[in-house]
């Protein structure tokens, strides 16, 4: 009996330590996986709910990027987004950032449909800023790589609107 429990205990310890090693490895890789290529220096939240909580707590706007891996327009925008220093810096310092590959249950995040890429801003008061739109009347919240300067202006607008409304 003694031998059996020692064996069981050592097997348990091996299982725990290998799980721990995997958890530690995962911990180090987390920002990379959450960034999904949109910017590895940016701190990304994992869920919309977490994003809302952090926005309210930090008094920063939440920026929600809807995208899909197999969407060429998303890939093109992602590349331009990740390569733009001004966007990366603002995203890291002034915003709560979330990129999603699925839709949320919040219908306010798809006022004109569920398409990708789609970028929306949510105020720290938890109001979806449907008034911050891109350049296209048929898809109000989409941006193309050449629209990066426009997106930067909209990020600044999202920041300005907080200051003036609180």
TrEMBL record:
First and last residue of the signal peptide: 1-23
Molecular-function GO terms, alphabetical: dystroglycan binding
Keyword match Amino-acid biosynthesis: no
Keyword Signal: yes
GO cellular component: endoplasmic reticulum
Keyword entries, A-Z: Signal
Annotated InterPro entries: AGR/TXD (IPR051099), Thioredoxin-like_sf (IPR036249)
Top-level lineage group: Eukaryota
SUPFAM superfamilies per record: Thioredoxin-like (SSF52833)
UniProt similarity note: Belongs to the AGR family.
Name assigned to this protein: Anterior gradient protein 3
Organism: Chlamydotis macqueenii
């Amino acid at each position: 009996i003694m031998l059996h429990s020692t064996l069981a205990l050592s097997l348990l310890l091996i299982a725990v330590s290998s799980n721990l090693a995997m958890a530690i490895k995962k911990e180090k890789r987390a920002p990379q996986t959450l960034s999904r290529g949109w910017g590895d220096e940016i701190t990304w939240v994992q869920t919309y709910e977490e994003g809302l909580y952090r926005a309210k707590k930090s008094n920063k706007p939440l920026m929600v990027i809807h995208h899909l891996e197999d969407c060429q327009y998303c890939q093109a925008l992602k590349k331009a987004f990740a390569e733009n220093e001004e966007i990366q810096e603002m995203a890291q310092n002034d915003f709560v950032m979330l990129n999603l590959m699925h839709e949320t249950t919040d219908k306010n995040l798809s006022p004109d449909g569920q398409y990708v890429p789609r970028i929306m801003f949510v105020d720290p008061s938890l109001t979806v800023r449907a008034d911050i739109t891109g350049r296209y009347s048929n898809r109000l919240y989409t941006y193309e790589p050449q629209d990066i300067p426009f997106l930067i202006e909209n990020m600044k607008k999202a920041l300005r609107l907080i200051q003036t409304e609180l």
